[in-house]
Amino acid sequence: MTVRKLFLLSLxxxxxxxxxxxxxxxxxxKKTEEGAMDSPEITKLNTIFKNMxxxxxKTIISGNKEEFLNDLKIVLNEExxxxxxxxxxxYLIDKKNKVGADYVPANLVKLVKNNDFSxxxxxxxxxxxxxxxxKILSKAAKKDGLTLLVSSTxxxxxxxxxxxxxxVEIDGLEEAERESARPGTSQHQLGTAIDFGSIxxxxxxxxxxxxLSKNAYKYGWSLSxxxxxxxxxxxxxxxxxxxxxxxxxxxxxxxxxxDIQQYMIEFINSWKNSN
Length: 275
Prior knowledge:
This protein is α+β, with helices and mostly antiparallel strands.
C-alpha cells in the first residue's frame, strides 16, 4: 500500500470518528435540552399558563421560568408557616369558589382597643396570622404619624347573608352583585380580610388610604379589588378592602402578575390542583 493511500485511509477513518463523536455530542445535547424542557415543573407551568384566560396571560410578566418557579416555591413555603390548622392562607374564594356555611376560621382573635390601631366596633376578629400582621402594619403606619381604623373583619356566613340581602333591598340584585359578596364567597369569611377607614371611595384620598396603597404590600397585605378589574374580580373598586396573603405572596404578585391578586391566587390554586 502506498504512503498516499495509507494517508487517505487514515484521514477517512479520522473524519468518520469525528462525525460519530459530533453526532453523539449533538444527541446528548438534544436530550439534555429536551430533558430540561420536559421537567415536570416546567411542563406543569406551561400547561397552567396555556389554560389561563387571555386577559390573565396579558398580565403575567414574561421572564425566566426557573426564576418564576423559585419565587413560587418561596411563596408556598411561607404559606406553610401560616397554616395554623386552618385552610390555606392563599385559598381561592370568589364568585365561583366558596366555603361552606359552617366554615369558621380556627382560633379567631378578638380585636380590642389598643395603641396600634383603632376599631369602630367591639365584635371584630381575625385569623391569628392576619391579626399579628395587622399589628406590624399598624405600627409601621404609626411611625409615619398615622393611626389605621379597622372597620370590618371576619364575617360569618349568616352575617354575610344578611349583608348581601340588605344591598339587594337597597340597590337591586344586579347592583348588589357588584358591591357585596353572596354568603360563602366573601373573603371576610376567611378571617384574613379587613375593610379600613370609612369604607367608601373617599378613603382612597385620605392619608390612611394613600399610605396603605403605597405600603400595605410590604407587610403582606394586598388590595383585593383594584380599579379597572371588575370584570376579573366580579366587584367594583374597593380602595378599603385588603387581604392578608403574606409578604412573599405580595412580592410575587407584583413581580409576575402585575399586582393583580385574583390572577395570582387563581394560578396558585391551579398549581396546587394540577398533577
